[in-house]
Amino acid sequence: MSNSTLLQKIEQCREEMLTLSRSHTLTSEAVVTSSVKLDQLINEYQNNK
C-alpha cells in the first residue's frame, strides 16, 4: 500500500476513533478496537518509510 493511501486511512481511522470517543468511554471495546487499528496503520506507515 502506498504511503499516501496509508496516510488517508490513518486520518480516517483517527477521525473514527475521535468520534467514537465522544459517545463512548475511552476504555470501551469500540474505542479500543479503533485505537488498535490506528496503531497498526501507523506501524505499517512507519515500516514503509
UniProtKB/TrEMBL annotation:
Gene Ontology terms for molecular function: protein dimerization activity
InterPro entries to which the protein is assigned, alphabetical: HLH_DNA-bd_sf (IPR036638), Spo0E-like (IPR018540), Spo0E-like_sf (IPR037208)
BP GO annotations: regulation of sporulation
SUPFAM superfamilies recorded: BAS1536-like
Pfam families: SpoOE-like (PF09388)
Name this protein carries in UniProt: Spo0E like sporulation regulatory protein
